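Final report, closing paragraph on structural work. Over the funding period we assembled a curated collection of sequence-structure pairs, and we close with a single example.
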Amino acid sequence: MLKKAIIATDLSDASEILLSCSDQYKDLSIEQITLFHALGVEYMNFAGITFLDKTKAKLGKIKGVFESKGFAVDVVIKEGIAHYELVEYGKANPDSIIVIGSKGEGFLRRVLLGSTARETVRLSSNPVLLIKMLEEQEELSSHCKLYCRDFNRKILFATDFSDSAENAFQFLKNNVAKTAQKIVLLHVQASQIMKHREQSAIDEFNKIDRKRLERMKDRLQEISSAEIELEVKLGIPSDEIIKTKQEHDCTLIVMGSRGRGFISEEILGSTTQKVIERTKVDCLVVPLRK
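Its predicted structure, as stored:
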């Protein structure tokens, strides 16, 4: 059972919004929080000591907020680059989930996903919960807001029946599903692979895969009272995942970090990458531990 979370903050207004998720962290059974901050290159300039003092003071205030809500809290400050330090700290704490803020759709989406958030998901050996935020324009200024607070309400679990997906399913079952109201189990037959198949063959694959989903449903019903729906679709996997999310109004997408086939050795499979870049809801990416 998940008990610990590493919450990454750069002390910006955007990352401090993660403070408002305390009830959702409790839904994940989290009891202990590590507030993680990497100083990065800013610390190396002439104002480094002053910068460090201000950072410690801000983190101390955040620590007090979480402690007032019943969490055990510690603070970790590293000097290096954010994603590298975060990934390394995660390796040393394999029983923790990493929580990090990420922009959703908008002009800053690729910038952010090209830096700390994306690199953390790509390299992490820990599960990573990406809390999506939207950039809102107000006249000449902009600000971030939490896009989806109640991320554990309706869960979409996308599977290709790979080892990575099975590992992600186990994490879903053990740590996330119990408090969910609805869970959608989705498998997408890749149209690129199926285009040369006869319809009868596709129908047979669909029948086999629906039975696989039914067995997964039975496993979830052992521990969860959530409504569970099954979907088998044909198309481009990333597109169908996002469409299914919209159809069921899902608030969290859970995926493994790698898929089947020749791309399985790539860290962060192409489908997972496309989904987290394009969707506006929170994503939980579970890596396959070696």
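Residues 97 and 246 are 26 Å apart (CA to CA). The chain is about 40% helix and 25% strand. We thank the funder for supporting this effort.
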